Amino acid sequence: MRKMKVTDWIHVIAGVFIMTSLALGHWVHPGWFCFTAFVGLNLFQYGFTGFCPLAIILKRCGVACD
Question: For the segment 32-66, what is each residue's pLDDT rounded down to a tens digit?
Fold first, then answer.
């Protein structure tokens, strides 16, 4: 099994956040869909700017860089 890099972790964590917030928005309160939009917008801007706060946190935690 290969060692996961920062971008791999970003995709996994973003996917978990999106799926969790969609479930919470459906079964708990529609306000959770705002969190889904926040994660999506953050991924969108990361694609253009390369800036992602989660990447900074992961690098400080010792996750291998790309």
Answer: 999 999 999 999 999 999 899 998 999 899 887 75
Distance, CA of 64 to CA of 10 (rounded, Å): 12
Any domain includes 66: no
User: Which structural domain range is residue 11 located in?
Assistant: 6-60
- Roughly what angle, to the nearest 10 degrees, separates helices 33-49 and 53-60? 80
Considering the domain boundaries, does residue 65 fall inside one? no
Q: How many domains does the chain have?
A: 1
- 63 with 6: CB under 8 angstroms? yes
Class of residue 53 by CB neighbours under 10 A (exposed 0-12, middle 13-18, buried 19+):
exposed
More reliable by pLDDT, 3 or 19? 19
